Amino acid sequence: MKAKIISKIGILTLAFMLAFSMAVLPEVSAQEGELHELTIMSTTDIHSYIMPHDYLNDNEVDSYGLVKTATLIDQMRANNDNTLLFDTGDLIQGSLLGNIEAVVDPIQDGEVHATIDSMNMIGYDAAITGNHEFNFGLEFLERAYSDAEFPLVNANVYEAGTDENYFTPYKILEREVDGEEINVGVIGFVPPQIMVWDKLHLEGEVEAREIVETAEKFVPEMKAEGADIILAVAHTGIDESEGASENAAYHLSQVEGIDAMLLGHEHRRFPSNDYEGIDGVDIEQGTINGVPAVMPGAWGSHLGAINLSLTNDSNGWQIVDSQSEVTAVDGDVKLEQEITESVQEKHEATVDYVNTDVGETFANLNTFFSRVKDNKVVQLVNDAQLWFADNYFEETEYSDLPVLSAAAPFKAGRHGADYFTDVSEGGIAVRDVAEIYIYDNTLQVVKVDGEEVIDWLERSAENFNQIDPSETEDQVLLDYGFRGFNFDQIAGIEYEIDVTQPIGERIVDATYEGEPLTADMEFLAVTNNYRASGGGDHLNDAEVVYQGTEENREVIIDYIQETGGADPEVTDYWSIAPVETEGRVVFRSYPNATEHMTNSEAAYIDYVGEEDDWGLYEYDLSVEQEETTSLWDRIRAFWSGLWS
């Protein structure tokens, strides 16, 4: 009897335990597999555009400004329990407000850089260096970031000649997600090309190494130190071609251990149709080779966000899903008031500065057709640079060498159909000169031979697509992926560009004073620090014979004030070689550009219609170039008359 009772008790106990396990185990499993949402926000390429103000045209805008992005950040935080915020570089250089803080009226001890101050108020978790952080030198970079209340990380810049990182290579941030601890590893990268672009400031001080190889070194180290997830915060874009170095995100995504990437540098958006069709890129989910990624435009135009779905179980934190998105700033996004008030004084000082009178321009100056024709804006820059060099080298060892000048159209459609220089005839102010020359470059002079000049021009001629004269369908003349600031036009020589030829074989009939350019001809060529250092791949280890502190922009101001005004004469010293084509050759530019067209431009260019908010134009390649007086003769005649 007792045995039966014990048996019954055992059976009942077993049944109870089974019932309990059936009720409890699913609950335990649900807890182990519980999803946690973490939103990782990013900004990039702010370029000191804190206020939504176009300083070059002195008017308010709706589509950018960190004070507006800050409002999107506040909204994102309000709608998500777990958030992090990072910036991917190019913060302290760009707008004229940033230029004032670095050059015109540099920040003093005890004064916080306006962009860094704004970021402190927003509450960033970390930031990295972009390439433009180095434009004003390491001392200013360190001064600007000395008041940052967030870590600045970079892994691929080293002290010159050593294996010591110049910056903190990475940080492991201790955070919580839904009350559970998570260690977020953050590592930063910058294009190694900073050693070319800012050679003047960096040579002998630091050295930059390749992004991917640096990631392969540090990511395992971060894992070993306890990083649960690793974020690559990289000032780099997306280029799938083998060996891509400047825009290395595609290859960076293949480094084992990287869980998400926050990108920049290209001033583009990811995910977007810009990257459609690249193998391994999912523009719907926003992944590159399966790794979540985001790139939010420039100037605070967008807020990037990667929404991660995570689990935390016996295997640690795991990412089970993701979705990347970019949210645009527009007219409905209000200004964040605390930041607006804090920057107001510097903003007003910038507005006053940009409206300072410089002189007068006797011609309308625009870059609407600057990538297809000799242009007044480019001519003005070249005139000013030649003026400087003629005076500087007059009684030096180089006085017998002929002087050339290279300049490019900086605002030529890169950011859309209205992104062109457009300065009307009349009074000209600092903001107008900044509209003509938007970068904080310093003037440099290189010594080159005739062959180097031709190589320089061949690189510039990549501005064009190769045209097939027998093609009956429309062909696009311009390579829209080519940056206008790399389309150097070299004054002092005459040449044609044959767009029917492949890259590297397009410069024809290049002459100096009627004589073909040869390797035994030597020239001085005025340019900027970016180009003289090899930026854009136009020059290879050029001999720099002058590197001063004068900004190219300041040289233009001095030239206008000294000569009584801007009156550049387009001399057609370069042109596209004429050829008969079976079909139309077209290109995009400002929609209303015909209203500002010169007679020389009208001889070649006809308006076709609209295309995706752009104006579409036909270029008549069959038009023969008129004979013109040698540009060099005109320049010399001008100066002879001026100083006689």
Low-confidence stretches: 1-30, 627-644
Estimate the mean pLDDT confidence. Answer: 91
- What share of the residues lie within helices? 25-40%
Determine the number of helices (DSSP H or I, runs of at least 4 residues). Answer: 17
- Beta-strand fraction estimate: 25-35%
Largest sheet: 8 strands, mixed
- State the separation between the terminal residues, measured CA to CA: 134 Å
Number of domains: 2
How does CATH name the architecture of the largest domain? Answer: 4-Layer Sandwich
CATH class of the largest domain: Alpha Beta
Indicate the radius of gyration in whole angstroms: 29 Å
Structure, described:
The protein has 644 residues and is α/β, with parallel strands linked by helices. It has two domains: 317 residues, Purple Acid Phosphatase, chain A, domain 2, CATH 3.60.21; 209 residues, 5'-Nucleotidase, C-terminal domain (5'-nucleotidase,  domain 2), CATH 3.90.780. 28% of the residues lie in helices and 27% in strands. The protein has 17 helices and 35 strands. Strands 8, 9, 11, 12, 13, 14, 15 and 16 form an eight-stranded mixed sheet that branches. Helix 4 packs antiparallel against helix 10 and helix 11 crosses helix 15. The N terminus and C terminus are likely disordered.
